[in-house]
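FORM 7B: Structural annotation worksheet

SECTION A. Query
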Amino acid sequence: MPPVGRRTPRAGPDADSLDALADVVMACTDRAREATAPRLSHLQLQALTAIDRHGELNLGSLSELLFTVMSSTSRLCDRLEATGLIERHPREENRREIVLSVSADGRRLLDRLREHRRVALASALADGAGLIGVSVRPALRTATDGHRRPA
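SECTION B. Predicted structure
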């Protein structure tokens, strides 16, 4: 374990830039969450986003994605359902299985959150200094260069 106060070594010269980019994205997401859904916890937002990304999920799959135990995930979904952000219903192919999906209200909230985040990210990129005082352009270039699809 490295001594307290010392940074652990990073893999590659662009690691600091990528960390800075991750910090900016997280800060923009936090600001968007505060602006659109201040009562939604980070874990609730993560659950709502996961359900939206996958279309429908059962409780076990969501638990795995969130790295939480099933009972905690169930209570989390109870709260999201009570606020009208998700719905539970039987899966069409197997009526005994209950699946979670994002409600119309949940989708509107996610759309607003994503729009706020896009505006914040665009502002950070336009500033060139981002929200934490470092340039995010090299980090963005590094991140996207490594994930481009072959032509």
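SECTION C. Observations
Residues 147-151 have pLDDT under 50 and may be disordered. Residues 18 and 46 are 21 Å apart (CA to CA).

SECTION D. Sign-off
Analyst initials: ____
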